[in-house]
């Protein structure tokens, strides 16, 4: 059975579970009382979150080369389509946006553009780690959760602690020459590994592969460190990240208000932080069914009625998918129409195909 089929079956099962949990009499009452003004406000807050995200990315990109805000917004929305629907793009996210920047600017320093994306992800992770840490502590200390869930959260927290500890050791305690030798050993074994035949097809020799990779890493490190040392850009980026997450939490609060449920700020921060965190570490796309089941489970864990949790989850999902499907596909259409972010050879092929089509019509 293919991975896509397994994911589809899992989504189907989660939808069946959600449908069985709903109190349909209460569902009808809540649906009739939904405040459309609050839902519209939630949609606008979601839009503001995406706009702020594009703006914070622009501050980083402009440090290397100015790019129009509208173009970056289109690229951001187009990338969200892949992150939502393609597991590989979600797991190795960022390379698509780096390629987009390389094509838009005609600047082929791929590593430099990728550094801006990693910096964007770094500041987002730094800001988001604060509510996530608070939420984990709150859940473990104050909520009556199942023993298995408590153990799972403790194990995950321990793994992250060990990763941070080993990162510290690798930087301060392990000999630099040993690190370099180990890196080159892994690099060589990767190139000659039987399953990575596509690498050998793209690079004629290991020397070419090594030189290109080392040069890219050096460029990436130089750009990343230069941004880190620019306190003005860094403070602006962190501030915009705080604002972006504020819009995300406020959007969810408005959705709860639209269904007539007055959620406390603590419950909102704890539940939504855990939902976003779990979705971000899943190695599969958060498609229909998966994210909803996680949201319903976390919301009910903090004491929110299941029917309310289901409705809020579905409204939240519909709003999100509106942007990453309708708006994002519209962005992709616009980019293809005006050849934004396309390589020159791809644009030439499109132009030639258009000429051929006109000749055929004649």
From TrEMBL:
- Tell me which UniProt keywords the record has, alphabetically: Cell membrane, Membrane, Transmembrane, Transmembrane helix
Annotated membrane topology is: Multi-pass membrane protein
> Has UniProt tagged this entry with the keyword Transmembrane helix?
yes
- Coiled coil ranges: none
Q: Which residues are listed as membrane-spanning?
A: 6-22, 34-55, 126-143, 150-169, 234-256, 268-286, 293-312, 318-338
Top-level taxon in the UniProt lineage:
Archaea
Mention any one GO cellular component term assigned to this protein in its UniProt record.
plasma membrane
- Write down the NCBIfam families for this protein, in alphabetical order: flippase-like domain (TIGR00374)
Similarity remark: Belongs to the UPF0104 family.
Which PANTHER family does UniProt cross-reference here? Answer: UPF0104 MEMBRANE PROTEIN MJ1595
Return the protein name. Answer: Flippase-like domain-containing protein
């Amino acid at each position: 059975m293919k991975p896509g089929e397994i994911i589809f079956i899992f989504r189907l099962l989660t939808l069946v579970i959600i449908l069985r949990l709903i109190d349909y009499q209460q569902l009808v009452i809540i649906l009739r009382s939904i405040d459309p003004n609050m839902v519209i406000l939630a949609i606008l807050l979601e839009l503001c979150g995406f706009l702020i995200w594009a703006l914070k990315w622009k501050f980083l990109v402009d440090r290397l080369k100015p790019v129009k805000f509208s173009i970056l917004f289109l690229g951001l929305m187009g990338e969200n389509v892949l992150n939502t629907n393609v597991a590989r793009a979600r797991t190795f996210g960022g390379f698509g946006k780096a390629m987009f920047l390389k094509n838009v600017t005609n600047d082929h320093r791929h590593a430099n553009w990728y550094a801006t994306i990693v910096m964007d992800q770094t500041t987002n992770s730094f800001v988001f780690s604060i509510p996530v840490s608070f939420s984990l502590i709150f859940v473990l200390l104050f909520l009556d959760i199942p023993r298995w869930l408590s153990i799972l959260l403790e194990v995950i927290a321990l793994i992250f602690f060990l990763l941070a500890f080993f990162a510290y050791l690798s930087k301060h305690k392990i000999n630099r020459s040993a690190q370099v030798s180990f890196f080159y050993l892994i690099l060589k074994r990767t190139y000659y590994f039987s399953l990575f035949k596509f690498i050998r097809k793209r690079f004629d020799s290991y020397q070419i592969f090594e030189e290109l990779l080392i040069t890219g890493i050096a460029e990436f490190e130089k750009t990343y460190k230069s941004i880190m040392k620019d306190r003005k850009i860094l403070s602006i980026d962190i501030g915009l990240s705080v604002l972006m997450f504020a819009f995300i939490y406020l959007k969810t609060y408005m959705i709860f208000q639209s269904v007539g449920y007055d959620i406390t700020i603590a419950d909102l921060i704890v539940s939504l932080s855990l939902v976003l965190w779990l979705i971000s570490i899943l190695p599969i796309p958060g498609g229909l069914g998966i994210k909803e089941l996680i949201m319903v489970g976390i919301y009910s864990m903090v004491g929110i009625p299941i029917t309310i949790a289901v409705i809020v989850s579905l409204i939240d999902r519909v709003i999100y998918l509106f942007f990453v499907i309708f708006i994002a596909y519209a962005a992709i259409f616009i980019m293809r129409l005006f050849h934004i972010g396309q390589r020159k050879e791809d644009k030439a092929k499109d132009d030639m195909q258009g000429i051929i089509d006109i000749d055929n019509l004649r």
